[in-house]
C-alpha cells in the first residue's frame, strides 16, 4: 500500500484506469457556486454520453467521519457529478455510513476494491451501460421508420441486416442477467443473432462488459449519424431574385 497520500492518489487513479476508465489526479472542477479541488476525477466517455465520478482519497490513520461524506455530497450536488467515492484504508465511523446510505456516495477502500475483484465498480459500469441502452431505446423509437431503414438502423421488411431494436433487446436481456450475478449465463435465444459472430455464453462481469461496450457504442454511433442527417437544415437550391 502507498506510503503517503500522494502515492495513494496515484494508486487509486491507476486502479480506475485498469478498469478502462479515464482518471486524473489533483483536478480543479467548476461547480455552480464555486470551484472544487478533487483528489481523483474519473470519467467514462462514449458517443454522446459521459459519466463523472469524484474520488476522495483519505490515507489517514483514523476513521473517516460523517462530515467528509456530507462534504463530498455537497461537491457532487454543486458539480453535477454522477457519483462520489470515498477511499479510506482505516474505515469509516458509523455516522459516515449513515450519511452515505441511499445516496450516490460509495464508501470503500482501495485494498477492498482490489480484493473483491472490483465488484462494486463493475456494477457501476453495468448501471452506466444500462442507462446508455435506455437512452438508445428512446432515440431509436423517436426516429421515423423510413429514416431508420435508410441509415442502416433496421432492415427493410422481409430483409435481413442490422437491427437496432434487436440489439437493444439483446443488451437489455444480457444486462438483466448480469445484474443478478449468476454466471455463467446465456443470452436469450430470440436475440442471439442480433450481434453476429459473438459468444452466447457469458462467464464473468468482465466478459459481459467487454461484449456490451462495443455493441452499444456501435448502436450509439449509428444513431448519432442518422440524427445528424435528419437534423441537417435543408439546402436552398433555388435562385433568389
TrEMBL record:
Gene3D superfamilies recorded: 3.40.1350.10
Gene Ontology molecular function: endonuclease activity
Domain Restriction endonuclease type IV Mrr: 3-108
Tree of life domain: Bacteria
Leader sequence residues: none
Keywords from the named record: Endonuclease, Hydrolase, Nuclease
InterPro entries: Restrct_endonuc-II-like (IPR011335), Restrct_endonuc_IV_Mrr (IPR007560), tRNA_endonuc-like_dom_sf (IPR011856), Type_IV_Methyl-Rstrct_Enzyme (IPR052906)
Pfam families, sorted: Mrr_cat
Name recorded for this polypeptide: Restriction endonuclease
Organism this protein belongs to: Duganella aceris
Amino acid at each position: 500500500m502507498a506510503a503517503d497520500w500522494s502515492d495513494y492518489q496515484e494508486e487509486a487513479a491507476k486502479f480506475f484506469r485498469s478498469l478502462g476508465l479515464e482518471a486524473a489526479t489533483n483536478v480543479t472542477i467548476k461547480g455552480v457556486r464555486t470551484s472544487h479541488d478533487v483528489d481523483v476525477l474519473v470519467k467514462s466517455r462514449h458517443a454522446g454520453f459521459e459519466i463523472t465520478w469524484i474520488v476522495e482519497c483519505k490515507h489517514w490513520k483514523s476513521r473517516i467521519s460523517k462530515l467528509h461524506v456530507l462534504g463530498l455530497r455537497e461537491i457532487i450536488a454543486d458539480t453535477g457529478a454522477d457519483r462520489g467515492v470515498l477511499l479510506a484504508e482505516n474505515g469509516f465511523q458509523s455516522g459516515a455510513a449513515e450519511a452515505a446510505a441511499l445516496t450516490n456516495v460509495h464508501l470503500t477502500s482501495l485494498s477492498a476494491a482490489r480484493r473483491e475483484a472490483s465488484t462494486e465498480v463493475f456494477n457501476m459500469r453495468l448501471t452506466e451501460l444500462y442507462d446508455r441502452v435506455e437512452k438508445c431505446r428512446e432515440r431509436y423509437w423517436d426516429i421515423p421508420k423510413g429514416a431508420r431503414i435508410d441509415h442502416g438502423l433496421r432492415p427493410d421488411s422481409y430483409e435481413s441486416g442490422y437491427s437496432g431494436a434487436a440489439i437493444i433487446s439483446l443488451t437489455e436481456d444480457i444486462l438483466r442477467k448480469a445484474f443478478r450475478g449468476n454466471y455463467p449465463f446465456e443470452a436469450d435465444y430470440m436475440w442471439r443473432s442480433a450481434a453476429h459472430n459473438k459468444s452466447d455464453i457469458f462467464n464473468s462481469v468482465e466478459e459481459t462488459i467487454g461484449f456490451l461496450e462495443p455493441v452499444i457504442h456501435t448502436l450509439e454511433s449509428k444513431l448519432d449519424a442518422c440524427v445528424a442527417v435528419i437534423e441537417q437544415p435543408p439546402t436552398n437550391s433555388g435562385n433568389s431574385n
